[in-house]
Amino acid sequence: MSKMTIDVVGRPLARTKSRLGTILLLVLGLGLLGFGLWVRGLPAFVAWQAARDHAHGLGGRPTSRVWSSEPAVVTAWLEQHGTPVPPLPDHAGSAGLVGAHYCSLVDRVAAHVVYQGEEASVSIFVLHGPVRAPSGWSASVHGVHVHFVRAAGRVLAIVGERHDDVRAALRGFATSVAAVDPPRPKLLT
Ligand SMILES: [Zn+2]
Question: CB count, 10 Å around CB of 55?
Answer without folding.
Answer: 14
